[in-house]
Every structure is written in structure tokens, then in C-alpha cells.
Amino acid sequence: MIYLYSEINDYAKDKKFITAGDDNICIFAAHQDDGVIMAGGYAIQTIKNGGSVNIVYIFDGETGNGRKRNILRMNESFKAWKLAEVGKENIIFLDYDEYFGLIDKKKIETCIEEVTTLLKKNNYDVIFLPLYEGGHYKHDITNYIVSRAYLRSGVKGKLYECPEYNAYYSIKNTPEKFLSLITKFVPFYEYRSPPSFIRKDNRWYLEMSNNELELKRRMLQTFRSQGGKGLLGLYGYKDSFQTYTGYDYSEPPFDYENSVAKHVNNLKTVPVLRSFLWWLFGKTKTRHPDLDYMITKLKIDKEH
Ligand SMILES: [Zn+2]
Fold first, then answer.
1. 175 Cα to the center of ligand 1, angstroms
2. Which residue among 51, 108, 165, 290 is least packed, with the fewest CB closer than 10 Å?
3. Cβ(248)–Cβ(302) below 8 Å
4. What is the 35 CA–ligand 1 centroid distance (Å)?
């Protein structure tokens, strides 16, 4: 535990902090609650400084086939962004079908074109996209689409990835995640870690005041359909970002075959261990109707 604390403190020393300016920014989120989770703090500061904030939601958030927007989730997002003084007119819904919308190359290509047009037209200064994490298929495909569109459009804004959900555990790269596992065995003590990165470099932490963090947390709680208060424990932290540096998308973002997650998933098949492992690790598979589905199955790579 002491080792982990020292690793985390080492990180703290090298942490690079940023604050938002008065830029024209755009947050590309898979779902309505993701936008606030990813860059709610950055958006709050941008508005305060006189900049402009735009949000693009890729998926309709609705179960069932077809591009039908989930109205409840839409209204929750309006309410959340209103708290940060972002108006409805700055929120775009692309409404790709939640389950079947972006699982084949053709539809993915259509979406890349759609996002490319948006980027060319608006020339944003800073663009946010979900981190490629091998955790949630729709977050990963959003990363792929927005990064392809960025390259294709030739725009020059900053491109920041935002971590949300992944099952990557590494003592070297994510010591805080191990610490939060270990402290589950310590009575009356809990160490909760914010969403974690996978790669070590180019991490940026947003300097946020207590008031700004409080506002981000209030925004998160408007997403009642997604658990509202429950989102706070997982995502009620200051924003953090990583500069996008490219991936080979034919590979998962971390070595799954030799990962902690894979061992845990194998052990979860042993009935007597299952509930213990769920308590300790929570979800360790990808979020997709097919639990082993990752975007690597699309056979796309960085050349496309
Ligand atoms: Zn999501």
C-alpha cells in the first residue's frame, strides 16, 4: 500500500495542470451523460471566460432499432448544460442507433463524413473525444470516428481524449486503481479513483475550483435515468485529458491477453469466486451486447 501511495505521489509531482481559455470548443460524446463526465469542467470554465461550448452526441441512447432519440435523456442533457449556461442551440444530436447504428463499415464511414463536415465548418479550437479504452464499444467507436474525421478534415485544433470506463489495471500506469482495490479490505475507509488512463504520457489535469467541481457534480446529477447520484462516485471528479497521439485500431488499447481483466474474467466463471470478484473489480468486460466485442473486430486499422 505504501508503495502504491508513493507511486501516486510521484505522479502528483509530475502532474501537468491546465485551465480553459475563451476558445470555441466541441465535446463529441457517445451518450448524453458522457459529455459532462468528459469535459464538464472545461466547458464551465470556457463559458466563464467568454468562449463557446458545443456538444455533439453520436448515439440516440434509445433501445430498439432505428434512429429514434431518447427524449428523456435529451431533456436531461438540456437541463445539465443549462446549469453551465450552454444553450440548446449548441447541442447537436446525430442519433445513430444505440445498438445497430455503428457496427458496420458503411455506417461508420457515413458518420465519419458527417463529423468531418462539422469540423470543417466550425473549425473548433479544442475538440474532446472519449479515450480509446477497450471498455465501452460505443465510446471506442466514437473515438475512432472523431479521430478519423479530424485527420480527414485537416483542421488544426487540439484533440483531447477523455477517460471514462475501462478494465485496465497496471501497478506502473494505474497505481490508484490498485489502491482503490486494496482499500476495499480496510474497514471504514474508501479510496475512490477518478477515471483512469491507459498510456502514461501526455496526461493533463484541469485545475478546477471547488465551486466549479460542485457545478460539474450538479450537472451529473441531472442524468437521473443513468443513475444520477450513482454517477458521482464514478465520475464526480475534476476533468482529466490526454493528448491524442494515434492508435493502431486493429489492436485493443491494452494487451488484453496478458491483462488482469482477462484473469478476472476467467475466474468469474468459477461459481464460488464470482460474487467476490464482482464486489472487488465490478465490471471487467466490454459494454456491448456481445461481451467480448471490441472495435478490433471491425478489422479497421490506422491506415483508413
Ligand atoms: Zn456512454
1. 25
2. 290
3. yes
4. 9
